[in-house]
Amino acid sequence: MGTAEIIIKIVLVVIVFAISLVIAMYSTYAERKIAAFLQDRVGPNRAGPWGILQPLADGGKMFLKEEIIPTNANTFLFIAGPSLAIMTACIGSAVIPWGQKLTIGSYTFDLQIADINVGILYIFGVVSLGVYGIMIGGWASNNKYSLLGAIRAASQNISYEIAMGLSIIALLMTTGTLSLGHIAAQQHGFWNGHYFSWNVFSQPLGFLIFLVCAFAETNRSPFDLPECETELVGGYHTEYSSMKLGFYLFAEYINMFVSSAVMATLYFGGYNFPFMDLIHSQNLVTILGTVFLFGKVFLFIFFFMWVRWTIPRFRYDQLMDLGWKVLIPLAIANIIITGVVMQFIK
Amino acid sequence: MESLSNKKKLVESKPLNFLERAYLPAIAKGLGITIKHFFKKPVTISYPEEKREYSENFRGMHSLKRDENGKERCTACGLCALSCPAEAITMIAAERQKGEEHLYREEKYAAVYEINMLRCIFCGLCEEACPKEAIYLDGPHVPSDYLRKDFIYGKDKLVEAPLNQ
Amino acid sequence: MSTFYFIAFLSIFFSILVITARNPVHSILYLILTFFTFTIHYILMNAQFLAIVNFIVYMGAILVLFLYTLMLINLNKESEPRKSNLVKIAGFIGGACFLITIVAALKAFKMSDSVVTQNNDLGLVKNLGKILFNEFLLPFEISSVLLLSAMVGAVLLATKDPKAA
After folding, report:
1. String of b and e for B11-48 (b: at least 16 CB within 10 Å)?
2. What is the DSSP letter of B64?
3. Does pLDDT of B112 surpass 60?
């Protein structure tokens, strides 16, 4: 790997990092606006035109708030919790293919930071690590509500990871690769001559299971039991204040962004868009593809928020029932059906 | 027993059928309802800039009226204070001096007229009681403030602005 | 090679911290770090699949459950029972036996012709899958059926008996 490539990679890392932070920032704004629109309200509109400076105001407020560390809390772990949460949220975006090859001058490079051949599993690893931030923070607060929230988070994440993994297996049977770059490339265009090339058309049930699990893994409503206000005050972040609370909230939005990107890549063709073969300039296709990918991601983020303001929270036993008794059997059935169909087609 | 009004409704609790148990149709329906609201016009009135119109019989802050020549109508008879169920009104009467005819309509006037807005219940009985049509509750809301003493409104806040100014 | 020595040092350092940490939750957290260094070892050996599986299964699931349980059982110094001498002696004998086994194993230690150098890409998903599904098909299938049956059993245990309900 030459110096130029390393520089390009570093630039790419910085860009992806910055984009995910900005998107997470504006997700907080979007969430409030969408919530307002769904409830016939206006939403934040004071900071700047239409309130678009609201995230900056919120961030400023978070930074300036008093930082409280409870006396009996474990100080080191109390600080480590939110740091871990936001770190694991940020590293997930490393394997997502943001676009095809881009040529600038004599250099051609991929718009993907790392095309490792276990890309999906890497995402899983990062997701499963994300729960540590919540657990450590919840335990270190030395508060019963935080502990209960942390425990809920742990069991919820582990339960839904299984269903998520099983739903992915059916997808991997059709794609035959674990690399996200290859999976995105396989879904070229929209119509491959015989059939829709996006995976959602061959794996609708798998997508549904994955979607539900993604909601549970990102702790979004209707599965936001770890921070359930009505029962647990604030759940795992009851004792947190200032920017440490901000980090927890931020991590949730980054997680949402990354999981939207993963869903768009796995099931909705990633950077592919209909009639992309009609455009001959490779660079134009790449840029348009990236724009389309972000469009899909934004649609998913909108969907996350839309669902949040529609469906009330599950009860905890209902959550576990859904995970273990519905989603896992469905995912296994999906694997079997996929296998049988693949045998017949072959 | 037989229902006389025919309004009784028996609550049925049938076991859910498959589609109902599958949740998804219900969720889709709910999402449909919320997205319909997404495109509706917000009902919010953004207060300071926009104000909701008061209804015609709204009773807000009091104002002490002047007559057509700009003289204060109030004659400090004390009927409003007497009628006030919350005892919010106090006043001190004074005699009109020579040269003040252009200020006060009657020979007696209220030198001090105070309404405690924290006590006032905006019932409008003072308005009804006034024989001189001097007090009306036709103002806007009473604004908020920090100190209790600032809610005792004197003549400076209550009396209508003079004419021709 | 220096990376290897650094990571190996970290593994041993964290493992020692695991057994010396006073607080059981800290102990588990050090164990997580230890497993993380193992993951790095696998990556250094170009065994990506093993690395990521170690990451997901051990760090992401099993240790979460460990942490989960430890958080619930509240192991304070006060509530911890005094260990009797008998337990201490038994612990010593057990440890000594383990030490002897390790020393004996070290005596038989010689440089094996390393598997990694024979085939550098052995750890990649494709090669690993080919080997698992050709040479080791039967053990692989048996273990997967075992795991699946365990999971089905768990779901079955969690499901209410329809007759009892």
Report:
1. eeeeeeeeeeeeeeeeeeeebeebeeeeeeeeeeeeee
2. E
3. yes
Inspect the interface and report whether the beta carbons of A325 and C126 lie closer than 8 Å: no
Q: pLDDT tens digits for A34-76?
A: 888 888 888 888 888 888 888 888 888 888 888 888 887 788 8
> Within a domain: residue B16?
no
**C56 and A121: CB-CB below 8 Å?**
yes
> CA C115, CA A287: separation in Å to the nearest integer?
45
In a domain, B112, yes or no: yes
**Touching chains C and B? (3+ Cβ pairs < 8 A):** no
Q: Do A306 and B34 touch (CB under 8 A)?
A: yes
Put simply, the answer to whether C155 touches A151 (Cβ < 8 Å) is no
Beta strand B152-153 with B135-136 is: unpaired
In A, residues 49-108, which contact C (CB 8 Å cutoff)?
77
The structural domains of chain C, with segments of one domain joined by +, span 1-80
Considering only CB atoms, C155 lies closest to which of A121, A158, A324, namely A324
Question: Which residues of chain A are modeled with pLDDT < 70?
Answer: 1, 192-193
Total of domains in chain B: 1
Percent of chain C residues past pLDDT 90, beyond the cut: 8
The CA R_g of chain A, rounded to the nearest whole Å, is 21
Which domain, by its residues, includes A88?
3-345
Summarize pLDDT for C25-76 with one digit per residue, the tens.
888 888 888 988 988 888 887 777 888 888 888 887 888 888 888 877 765 5
Q: For residue B94, is it within any domain? A: yes
Q: Which chains does chain A touch, 3 or more C-beta pairs < 8 A?
A: B, C
Handedness of CA A277, A279, A281, A287 (dihedral sign): negative
Q: What is the 3-state secondary structure (H, E, C) of A93-104?
A: HHHCCCEEEEEE
Which pLDDT band, with edges at 50, 70 and 90, does C146 fall under? very high
Looking at residue C145, what is its pLDDT?
A: 92
Distance from CA of B52 to the nearest CA of A (A): 16
Q: Are A260 and A218 in contact (CB under 8 A)?
A: no
Contacts 24+ apart (CB under 8 A), C36-40: C37/C7, C37/C10, C37/C11, C38/C11, C40/C7
Strand partners, A108: A103
Listed residue (A119, A107, A114) closest to A5, CA to CA: A107
Whose CA is closest to A21, among A56, A52, A71, A46? A56
> Residue B127 maps to which CATH number?
3.30.70.3270
Q: Which fold has domain C1-80?
A: Four Helix Bundle (Hemerythrin (Met), subunit A) (1.20.120)
pLDDT band at C99, cuts 50/70/90? very high
A34 and A51 Cβ atoms separated by less than 8 Å:
no
Q: Are A118 and C32 an interchain contact pair (Cβ–Cβ within 8 Å)?
A: no
Contact B89, B115 (CB under 8 A): yes
- CA-based nearest residue in chain A for residue B42: A40
pLDDT of residue B165 exceeding 60, the answer is no
Domain limits at B148?
63-158
The tens digit of pLDDT for each residue in A306-335 reads 888 888 888 888 888 888 888 888 888 898
Helix (DSSP H) and strand (DSSP E) numbers for chain A: 13, 2
**Count: domains in chain A:** 1
Across the A:C interface, residue pairs with CB atoms under 8 Å apart total 75
ipTM of the complex as predicted: 0.76
Residues from chain A contacting residue B37 (CB–CB below 8 Å): 37-40
Q: Distances from the Cα of B157 to the Cαs of A295, B10, B91, B117, in angstroms? A: 58, 60, 14, 12
The chains in contact with chain B, meaning 3 or more Cβ pairs closer than 8 Å, are A
Rounded to whole angstroms, how far apart are CA atoms C90 and A5? Answer: 59
Best CA proximity match to A294, nearest among A267, A270, A266, A259: A270
